[in-house]
Design a protein that fits this description.
heterodimer; A: about 130 residues; alpha/beta; Rossmann fold; five-stranded parallel sheet; globular; B: about 150 residues; alpha+beta; Chemotaxis protein chec; six-stranded antiparallel sheet; 3 helices; 6 strands; about 30% helix
């Protein structure tokens, strides 16, 4: 399983990398939507993209619309991870094709729970 | 006329506590205790524009800024560069500012964060409406919210 982490903050990429690595994901990072599109164009097809909204060059919303417009990436799960918490923006992102929306600050459990709900992995349930 | 209500001190405090507990460890809470802020230190600011304008600023001492960076990046303080520090403080004010924005009515857009050593002055059309003086790991942390002056109701 592979996660593409898209955030202009190295700190946030580091935090998200630690969480998904614990779940067994390999990771690739991009500092904005354009860099992330370049990664996809180069051939990486991740299982999930974790996407910030406010980034220079190309924001997360535009990235979502570009990915959803291209059939090559129809199976890639898109999860917004952002401080943007206005209802209208959440609706806009989901309507554009994002599968999930996590508002910063978050706990690792919030990310893990959403990824489990998306069927990206299953936590072991004690017998 | 655009009506913008001021965020309450309690709500801003709750936002700051949530950011701190999520990313800087719930076992070391940020305390509502004013500690004198020495000159210098770091400032991180983010502006809101659109339906209403605001600046949200976090001021920290060098030691607090380094501790924030070290904790968020999980690296020894001596390995944190100024670039790391700018990045971590930028993300911190991004989260505080984004959540303060969500307390306010109306649609608006967050800027990218601005981080620097020393003070970051808000726009001349903004006045301080909220000031939180806090302490984390014995170091002062100050969070301020600047908004345009309230319209005269008369």
């Amino acid at each position: 399983m592979h996660a593409l982490i898209i955030d202009d903050s190295k700190t946030m990429r580091s935090i998200l990398r630690r969480i998904v690595t614990e779940l067994g994901f390999e990771t690739t990072e991009a500092g904005n939507g354009q860099e992330a599109l370049d990664v996809l164009e180069a051939g990486l097809v991740p299982d999930i993209c974790l996407i910030d909204w406010n980034m220079p060059l190309m924001d997360g919303y535009t990235f979502v619309t570009r990915v959803r417009a291209d059939d090559r990436w129809r199976n890639v799960t898109l999860m917004m991870v952002t401080t943007e918490s206005e209802h209208g923006q959440i609706v806009r992102a989901l309507a554009a094709g994002a599968h999930e929306y996590v508002i910063k600050p978050f706990t690792p459990d919030a990310i893990i729970e959403k990824m489990e709900l998306l069927g990206l992995f299953a936590q072991e349930v004690p017998a | 006329m655009t009506v913008t209500l001021e965020p309450s001190l309690g709500d801003v405090h709750a936002v700051v506590e949530e950011v701190w507990s999520s990313f800087l460890g719930a076992e070391e809470p940020i305390l509502p205790l004013a500690t004198p802020m020495p000159p210098g230190g770091w400032s991180a600011a983010i502006t809101v524009t659109g339906g209403w304008d605001a600046q949200i600023t976090v001021n920290l001492t060098d030691a607090a800024a380094q501790a924030v960076t070290s904790t968020m990046l999980m690296c020894p303080p001596e390995q944190c560069s100024d670039e790391d520090l700018r990045d971590a403080l930028g993300e911190l004010v991004n989260m505080v500012g984004g959540n303060v924005k969500s307390l306010m009515a109306g649609s608006a857009v967050l800027s990218l964060p601005l981080v620097g050593h020393g003070d970051i002055s808000p726009g001349s059309h903004l006045v301080e409406v909220c000031r939180l003086e806090l302490t984390w790991r014995g170091e002062p942390v100050v969070v301020t919210v600047h908004l345009p002056p309230a319209a005269d109701p008369s």
